[in-house]
Design a protein that fits this description.
264 residues; Rossmann fold; five-stranded parallel beta sheet; 5 strands; 12% strand
Amino acid sequence: MRTAAEPMKRKEYEKALRSLQVELCALQEWVKEHGLRVVVVFEGRDAAGKGGTIKAITERVSPRVFRVVALPAPSDREKSQLYMQRYLAYAPAAGEIVIFDRSWYNRAGVEYVLGFCTEAQHRRFLLVCPEFEQYIVDDGILLIKFWMEVSDEEQKRRFEARITDPLRQWKLSPTDLCSRSKWFEYSRARDVMLKATDTKYAPWYIVPSDDKRRARLNCISHLLSLVPYKKLPQKKVKLPKRSMRGAYDDQATLKGRRFVANRY
């Protein structure tokens, strides 16, 4: 019998992922039909696989329903606002699922560890955050929070792969390199954050992510289990015949236009 440590074969992974993505499409229709509002927060260590998991969730659904929010560093104006203000601007309307690729929890992680906020601001965040999330939930929004946890050895391997792979070098930022040297500082910040913000109305779900394929499948499966939905009956679609009214040689009129070269 295969152990969990053995790599999942690509065909097995793709088959399981397709089944889950079919369910995500069914969830999408239910959310639209019933006007649900869902917020999904993805946090975790650098190189823990947040981006790949979010891509697996969103690649077969409509961006009008599943919106991904990945905010850059705040501007000087945003720094002068209420801390939560710029995140609330992206809250979902009826029929939307908003996925935060990092979120207000920046203050509990990277900002705190790298000294981008003060000790007082960090303590204030941990005190206010549960109240902020209670406000979100009380307004009828379903709030789901995932923490992706990668091991020390696997994070090191992924960072080294980014250094040598030109297709992944863009993923390696100065912040990533700094986070690598501050492993235990991030661990302590994580533990403090979980203790303060893991509540019954907005719990954290930990996703072990050393195995990327299993992590994605487990996360999507759990997400589907947390949103109550049913498959809606699909309307039968009949493709209409092409009308020949006003027919002409519409390909001949393209002669002399600029075409992309056939290089492949």
